[in-house]
Design brief:
Amidase signature (AS) enzymes, 11-stranded mixed beta sheet, 11 strands, 36% helix
C-alpha cells in the first residue's frame, strides 16, 4: 500500500503504527531471505505518535549510511560492522520523526556507497525482487529492493552519481534526488561531499513528494544547506504538463542504449506530448565527459573523507599491529573492500603533487561546462527527459572482471550530480533483456535548481501513463 493509503487507514482507525510494524516484520521474515535488502530491523514499539502529522505512524526504511540514534550504521563495510552504534540522529531522521514517521530498519548498500549494483557490500548480496539472479542497482540497492519487494512502504537512500535513481529504475520504483543543498547531509556518512544528496524511494510520485516535504529545508549544521523556503510540493503535483516545454537531449539517446529501454522511454515521451507538452530537441555537448569527470572528483573527495577510518577513532582496529602506522595499514587493509581501496588509491593519485592540475583541477573545469549545459538548456525548456540507465538490470557477477562497465552504467545519472540539479526516476514499463522476459525500465526527469515542484509535476504526469 502507498503512504497515502496507509495514512488514511491510520487516521480512520483501521490500523495502528504498532500493527504496521508487526505486519512489516512478518513480511520481512517471509520475503527478505531471498532479497536480502535489510542489514537489520527491529519491531520497536511505535510509542506516542501523533497521527495528525504528515507521516504520523508510518515506518520508513533507512539506508545504512544515515545515522540513527542507537542503531548500527555499517555503510556496508566490515570496518564499521559490529563496532559502531550511532550516538545521534541525522537531520533527515530528526525531520522524519518530527513529521511523525518511525525510522524502521537498516538497508543494505554498496560499501561506503561506492558501486552501482550493491554487489560491493561487505555484509551481504542484495537481489532484485523481479529476478533474484540480477542486481538491484546501487548504491541504494537495499532501499530500492525493499520497496519493490513490499518489505518497506518507503525508504531513504543517498545519491552521489545515480545511487537512488539507478536502483529505482532497475527495481521498478520511484527514486528522487533533490537539488544539492535542498536536504541536509548532516549525519550522512560522506562519500563525495560536493555530490552526495539524500532522497526518498517510494511506490508513487505522490509518496516521494510527501517524504521530500518532510525532510527538505535549511540546516545550520550543514554548511552546504540552502537557506530558501520549501514550497508545498503536493499543491502543484497534479497540474499536468500542458503548455510545458520538455527537452530531449540527443546525447542521452545515442549508441549503447538497449532497444527496449529506448522504446519505453520514447513511448512515455509521446504520452507527455499527447497531454499537451511541447517536446523540444536540445543538445548537452559535454555529457560525454561526465563519467570521466565524476571518477576524478568523487574518488578525490572519498580519499579525503575516508581518511578518518583509521582503526583509532572509527572502525575495527587490527589486533596484531606493531605501532601506530601499522595500526593504520592493517586496519584499513582488513576493513576496506576492493572497490573502496580502488577509489581511495585513484583519488589520492589525482590529488597528488604533479597530477592535481592535470586531473583534479581540469575535472573541476569540465564540471563547470556540464553545469553550463544544464543552465543553457533550462533557459529553453521547463524540464529534461532522458533514460535512467542504458540497460535494465544485468546479471549478478557479470561485471566482476570489468568494473569500468559498471561505471558506465551511470552515464545518464552522473551529470545531475555534477550540476547539482534535481532528478527523479519513474517506472515506464518493462522489457526483455539478457534472457529475462520483463525487467523494469525507468524514465528520468530533470529540472532546474530548486525546481522540485516542476520535477514532481512532470513525474506525476509521466507516472499516470
Amino acid at each position: 500500500m502507498t503512504l497515502t493509503d496507509l495514512r488514511q487507514q491510520l487516521t480512520q482507525g483501521d490500523t495502528t503504527p504498532a500493527k504496521l510494524i508487526e505486519d512489516l516484520s512478518v513480511r520481512i521474515q517471509a520475503k527478505d531471505g531471498t532479497t536480502q535488502a535489510y542489514v537489520s530491523y527491529g519491531s520497536q514499539a511505535a510509542g506516542d505518535i501523533d497521527l495528525s502529522k504528515p507521516l504520523g505512524g508510518l515506518p520508513i526504511g533507512i539506508k545504512d549510511n544515515i545515522n540513527t540514534f542507537g542503531q548500527p550504521c555499517t555503510c556496508g563495510s566490515k570496518f564499521l560492522e559490529k563496532t559502531y552504534t550511532s550516538p545521534y540522529d541525522a537531520t533527515v531522521i530528526t525531520k522524519l520523526k518530527e513529521a511523525g514517521a518511525i525510522p524502521f530498519g537498516r538497508l543494505n548498500m554498496d560499501e561506503f556507497a561506492m558501486g552501482s549494483a550493491t554487489e560491493n557490500s561487505a555484509i551481504q548480496l542484495t537481489r532484485n525482487p523481479h529476478d533474484p539472479d540480477r542486481i538491484t542497482g546501487g548504491s541504494s540497492g537495499g532501499s530500492a529492493a525493499a520497496v519493490a519487494a513490499g518489505t518497506a512502504f518507503a525508504t531513504l537512500g543517498s545519491d552521489t552519481g545515480g545511487s537512488i535513481r539507478q536502483p529505482a529504475s532497475h527495481c521498478g520504483v520511484v527514486g528522487l534526488k533533490p537539488t544539492y543543498g535542498r536536504v541536509s547531509r548532516f549525519g550522512l556518512v560522506a562519500f563525495a561531499s560536493s555530490l552526495d544528496q539524500i532522497g526518498p524511494l517510494t511506490q508513487t510520485v505522490d509518496d516521494a513528494a510527501l517524504i521530500l516535504q518532510a525532510i527538505a529545508g535549511y540546516d545550520s549544521r550543514d554548511t552546504t544547506s540552502l537557506d530558501v523556503p520549501v514550497p508545498d510540493y503536493s499543491a502543484t503535483i497534479n497540474d499536468g504538463v500542458k503548455g510545458l516545454k520538455l527537452g530531449i537531449p540527443a546525447e542521452y539517446f545515442g549508441e549503447g542504449i538497449h532497444p527496449g529501454v529506448r522504446e519505453n522511454v520514447e513511448k512515455r515521451i509521446e504520452h507527455l506530448r499527447s497531454l499537451g507538452a511541447e517536446i523540444v530537441p536540445i543538445s548537452m555537448p559535454h555529457t560525454k565527459h561526465a563519467v570521466a569527470t565524476y571518477y576524478v572528483i568523487a574518488p578525490a573527495e572519498a580519499s579525503s573523507n575516508l581518511s578518518r577510518f583509521d582503526g583509532i577513532r572509527y572502525g575495527n582496529r587490527a589486533d596484531n599491529a606493531e605501532d601506530i602506522i601499522d595500526v593504520y595499514h592493517k586496519s584499513r587493509e582488513a576493513g576496506f573492500g576492493p572497490e573502496v581501496k580502488r577509489r581511495i588509491i585513484l583519488g589520492t593519485y589525482v590529488l597528488s603533487s604533479g597530477y592535481y592540475d592535470a586531473y583534479y583541477s581540469r575535472a573541476q573545469k569540465v564540471r563547470q561546462l556540464i553545469t553550463r549545459d544544464f543552465k543553457q538548456a533550462f533557459e529553453k525548456v521547463d524540464a529534461i527527459i532522458t533514460p535512467v540507465a542504458p540497460t535494465p538490470a544485468r546479471k549478478i557477477g557479470s561485471c566482476a572482471e570489468d568494473p569500468l562497465q559498471d561505471y558506465l552504467s551511470d552515464i545518464f545519472t552522473i551529470p545531475a550530480n555534477l550540476a547539482g540539479v534535481p532528478a527523479i526516476s519513474v517506472p515506464c514499463g518493462t522489457t526483455a533483456f539478457d534472457g529475462a522476459a520483463a525487467l523494469p525500465v525507468g524514465i528520468q526527469i530533470l529540472a532546474p535548481h530548486l525546481g522540485e515542484a516542476m520535477l514532481l509535476r512532470v513525474a506525476k504526469a509521466a507516472e499516470q501513463a
